[in-house]
Write the structure tokens for this entry.
Amino acid sequence: MNESKLLRQLKQGSTAALSEIIELYTPYVYAIASNVMAASLPAEDIEEAVSDCFAALWYNRDSVESGKLRGYLAAVVRNRALSALRAKHMESPLEDDLMDITVSGPEKDVLMLELSDIAREAVDSLGEPDREIFQRHYFLYQKTGEIASALDMNGATVRTRLARGRERLRKYLTERGYSCEDTDI
């Protein structure tokens, strides 16, 4: 079943649609949570972040647009994982590179979805392999060494491409009227 149909059914309150989304996206969501939390927290905390992500989807199902489910899930699980680390007074090694959103509740999820769309558009403007490097580093929370190994590159090259890519993203966002002053982009 395609994503649009699943979302339509989910918005109508179908728990079967939610179950199918959970089955389809659990490996993806778990990978993100695991990459953020694995070195610091036990598997139970990772599983809780994954569960919270799908619960947030259920409660905010009306705000998720067709074609944006994957980005929504990534943003929510990333935030849940980072919140779990903060609750235990730990930090993710990549946390310094993210925007700190001070609102909470459903408004935060909607804002994160909008920011995720903007970030995805900006990252999509990068060419390959920079796009893949950014996706792996910022969306899947892979370390530069893992990315270098997966893409058969030198770790220093990956770090250089990330730095140059951040500068291109800053320029891209500034040209479109977004302020990068409050972020580490």
Remarks:
- The helical segments are 3-11, 15-37, 43-59, 69-87, 106-124, 130-139, 144-150, 155-175.
